[in-house]
Specification:
Blueprint (H helix, E strand, L loop, with lengths): L1 H7 L2 H5 L4 H23 L2 H17 L2 H17 L5 H18 L4 H10 L7 H4 L6 H8 L26 H5 L4
Helix pairs in contact: 3-4, 3-5, 4-6, 5-6
């Protein structure tokens, strides 16, 4: 609950206000994660349908990158959820993804066609990983001036960029029960 509030009012969401397709998908991330956790806690048909609806809504909302990252995080949540057997974890992951993909099937054909017509099609791994976080970038995500001020050329480590900021307080809030 607390982390969802921190996320909604974070710099990440503020950064996406000029990119509507990313904002639509990023705003749904807390709902997707909440519904997956609720499904794992209750494992009822109602909680399964709510989780599938949230995932499929995120799939059809816009930007595929954030949807992909949310799905990876959801699968990690399922994989690390305590008191569920490995067989059930696989079953829950597959059924949630399959049903959500089926609910959003009307979007798959235009998405695949658009992906092949995109200027990014076939550019390779070097392009895809060009803005990836380095260990220094991850540290700057939490403590932005850890190596000095990047804006005034006062940083002793200039490589990388500041792609976001979360700070220490939201990490501490996320530890609340």
């Amino acid at each position: 609950f607390y982390t969802s509030i921190v996320y909604i009012f974070s710099g990440t969401i503020a950064l996406y206000t000029n990119n509507v397709s990313m904002l639509h998908v990023a705003a749904l991330m807390p709902f997707v994660l909440w519904s997956v956790i609720s499904y794992l806690q209750k494992t009822s048909l109602k909680s399964f349908l709510i989780a599938s609806l949230c995932v499929s809504l995120q799939i059809v909302s816009g930007h595929p990158q954030i949807t992909y990252l949310t799905l990876v995080l959801s699968i990690l949540l399922i994989a690390t959820f305590p008191k569920i057997s490995i067989k059930n974890k696989l079953k829950y992951s597959f059924s949630l993804l399959a049903f959500s993909a089926g609910m959003s099937a009307i979007q798959w054909v235009p998405f695949v066609e658009f992906a092949f017509l995109s200027s990014r099609a076939g550019v390779g791994l070097s392009y895809a990983s060009s803005e990836a976080f380095t260990p220094l970038g991850i540290l700057r995500f939490i403590i932005p001036n850890v190596v000095g001020d990047l804006s005034g050329f006062g940083a002793w480590a200039q490589s990388g960029s500041l792609l976001g900021y979360i700070g220490i307080m939201p990490l501490l809030v996320s530890l609340l029960p």
